[in-house]
Design a protein that fits this description.
- The protein is mainly α.
- The chain is 55% helix and 3% strand.
- The radius of gyration is 26 Å and the shape is globular.
- The model is unreliable at 1-32 and 74-96 (pLDDT under 50).
- It contains 16 helices and 4 strands.
- It comes from Rhynchospora pubera.
- Keywords: Hydrolase, Metalloprotease, Protease.
């Protein structure tokens, strides 16, 4: 799960021999020159502490208001070419107005109820020049046929259609090995005369209740302790995250803890929450353009595409497919089953190739998520990878 990061302008090592805070230093320690500038700096420092509080509390509205006010005001003392402040020769030099601190506003998006505020946060950072690659593929659709048969899909991806479809648990890959190991262990115990049927019945009953009432959350939480399974989830969600970012869809957050996902009403064991303003506006008007639907479907199938790109086949993504079907039924006229199948193949083909072109950025996102970094750090890693070409 994303971990909020925050920067404090008052590190404890900055004042190793003083018990005073930087805002309560005796006047004799302050330089005698330009007292008005010092007062302005101290006032600005106090305001930045308010921003830190907003980031810590994950209050997006308050944090965004602060950044917008600092951008339009003169508290950054632009008259001084150096934004660093020396208290005296015995103290270190420090910078209270670091541009990279603006990134931390992304860490407040997860608790935001208004997705338009999330969009405003991304717009603010993009205007500041931080998100230079955000939405760079918004209008890009990879050249190719709209009618995508399994043969065409293999031609463009090198994979059979079955490799790009989510699997039921226990039917393939690691889950199949786990199921075989469980059944093999149970058979061995029975062969040794150990009565396990009552315990087995209880386990199956609990698993059934978990699947029906909690969407498999408990099983998912246990599975997350297995590194290969956990890494596959990271790869899947990083695919959603990177594709949404490239398509210009603001990301609210990436949830990797099954119980947190359950509390937030997310179907599945993990989830990446993104928002498409154009699609929301069109749906409110009772219509949906092909462009908006294409963009949404590409993000939706990007998790499956990411798994296939890394492992050669996908296992997760069943909830993504279910969400896709539910949306297709709402269209007017609704898509037929063959049309849904074609649209799904087209979408996963587009996502697969988009991630293939930006594979290094996807790897950077996976590593950042694996290290437990916050959303702001993950997106910075993506930007660094895209901008440097590394």
């Amino acid at each position: 799960m994303a971990v909020s990061s925050s920067f404090s302008p008052f590190p404890s090592l900055l004042y190793p021999s003083s018990t005073h805070s930087p805002l309560s230093l005796p006047l004799k320690f302050l330089p005698s020159s330009k007292p008005h500038l010092l007062r302005s700096r101290i006032k600005a420092l106090q305001r930045w502490r308010e921003y830190e509080d907003a980031v810590r509390d994950k209050d997006l509205a308050r944090a965004l208001r602060f950044l917008q006010s600092t951008q339009s005001s003169s508290i950054d003392s632009s008259s001084d070419s150096n934004s660093k402040m020396n208290l005296n020769s015995g103290f270190s030099t420090w910078d209270w107005d670091r541009p990279e601190r603006d990134w931390e506003i992304l860490d407040t998006c997860l608790n935001a109820d208004d997705m338009r505020l999330v969009g405003s946060a991304y717009g603010f950072l993009q205007d500041r020049g931080f998100l230079s690659n955000f939405g760079k593929c918004r209008d890009i659709v990879i050249e190719g046929p709209r009618e995508v048969t399994p043969k065409v899909l293999k031609e463009y991806t090198g994979l059979e259609a079955i490799k790009l479809a989510p699997k039921k648990w226990g039917m393939s890959g690691a889950s199949q090995l786990a199921l075989i190991a469980f059944l093999g262990g149970a058979s061995f115990l029975v062969s040794q005369g150990i009565e396990i049927r009552p315990n087995l019945a209880a386990i199956l009953a609990l698993a059934t209740a978990d699947a029906i009432f909690l969407g498999g959350t408990c099983l998912a939480q246990i599975s997350c302790f297995w590194p290969p399974y956990k890494r596959r989830i990271l790869i899947h969600e990083a695919g959603h995250l990177l594709t949404a970012y490239l398509m210009g869809c603001p990301i609210r957050g990436v949830i990797l803890d099954p119980f947190v996902a359950l509390q937030m009403g997310i179907q599945g064991q993990a989830g990446t929450q993104f928002w498409d303003e154009n699609m929301e506006s069109e749906l409110a008007e009772g219509r949906l353009s092909s462009t908006a639907f294409d963009r949404y479907c590409m993000v939706l199938f990007a998790g499956i595409a990411a798994e296939a790109l890394v492992y050669g086949e996908a296992e997760g993504g069943e909830n993504d497919e279910n969400l896709f079907r539910s949306l297709c039924v709402l269209l007017r006229p609704p898509l037929s089953v063959p049309e849904m199948a074609n649209r799904a193949r087209w979408s996963v083909m587009q996502s697969y190739n988009l991630l293939k072109w930006h594979k290094r950025a996807h790897t950077a996102a996976v590593k950042a998520l694996e290290a437990g970094h916050s959303l702001s750090v993950v997106i910075r890693r993506i930007e660094e990878s895209l901008s440097s070409g590394v």
